[in-house]
């Protein structure tokens, strides 16, 4: 019986111009058409559409064409076009897992023609096999039916072409015949691919690790064999018995972008055996046991029953701040605060109008003193006043105190942008009798409030790690904030940074630039620092290098320029958890006075961890330019593992005791390579949060 799609094809050919006369011609036609499909339907002139209904019809038609283009790309084995379509559209828009009228999905065609690259691309996009193939027999029968119907149609059209006299109708049937011959060959190739396929081999490199006190994680690679069909899913099984009798559970992994699975809800202290098997269109292959064959869920804290360092600290601090506010809320100094308008509720766009009025209090030039500037940026644009100036307000024009102490206090205040008004009211009580330091800090709070009020924005962003100073006695504290919304502001223009840099007329000499000129010259570097300091590490266990250097008024820590909110580091492994057994082994190794042996003992169960640690230490010491023969003098911090959430943890590598912190005037015995900088310790601690 002829399928419905074949009937549709025959009817369509009677209405359409002559189609492609060969597979190559079909390929060219499909390429030309698919080029048109790439036009976004939202770019059509909406004024020419009559109502929302027609726009929806146009959209559905457009997506249908994209689905058809994907099927054709898979059938023609055009990997580039398949990848282009998968990148351009979501699986839902492509109807990636909706069978066509022949009961096939794009993934079915790819795996039965043994096109592994296309099949993998589809699998990573979330493609599934057709639900019609519930057994090997049903798949074989379906393919035989498709081949038989295609062959029957080829024979019918061949007889008609041979027996009919040449005319327009005959020419049309010749084109239909060539199209059916090509489809007949496709179905035969799919049938042969299915018949010659065999079940997959076992997965390779099946590794088992302890993920927590109640879970283990298994990672694996696809089978090595290239002769079997494409693997479309994996099965993970676990049991307390090495014979897997009885099995405790199993799970199917069909998202193949990352081949790993975490088994949760396990009992701490119990050994679990794990194995993994692969599946293709011929069925399940043999299982492969993990290495090591079993794992015991645990965590390093179980070694001595230690509670997490930060447990309850955030709640305790919030409670303490609430108590302080309660004590001060009836203070006379807070009476004006109660009637203060809630400027934070104003929209940014409305508030920013006030920012650029001629009467605003932003400064154009700097005199000798301490100033605050706020940099708001979006992509390569920066927010400026109507006079093309970065917003600057004055803090103190007679500043003569210790800058670093005040600056570090200011960075802590930046964690409480929403509480500036409250902090300012608290300081006003004893302002007349307070010291120079308190007066300066009160002026800092006033400047912050002024900047917030003029901008209409409470959050001024992150403080840059060092103020800008010039030889004229100006000091500029810089805050940075990225605007990620597409909000349009009235009376405000975003100016390209490069344009602002080239258009500003400097009033200083290149040898002695003012703080504002220095800011404009280095603004790109500061924005790059701000963006990099917000990057997060990928999940895993890391080895960090702690190196400090002290000055008269501060301690600084060595960090990488590319990730300044984290210590210098290398990744040990993707699993952030250290098991109780690994931690116990590490305690024994760090307690002995002899150096760690170059090679682990053969019967040591922690050999994988030992090897990972050795590789990481060597890589880290090379990174920070420390000779490897000096490793014997370095130490691993064995008091605890530093946990940053549930996904990132750190072990620390420490220099010899005398070199942990370099004193002023002391030569650093190890000069790191380029790509590092030193941050004030307090700045680093804030960024680390």
Automatic annotation (TrEMBL):
GO annotation (BP), single: establishment of mitotic spindle orientation
GO cellular component terms, A-Z: spindle
Region feature (Disordered): 1-25
SUPFAM superfamilies listed in its UniProt record: Ankyrin repeat (SSF48403), Fibronectin type III (SSF49265)
Residue intervals of the Fibronectin type-III domain: 202-299
Domain of life of the source: Eukaryota
Entry protein name: ANKF1 protein
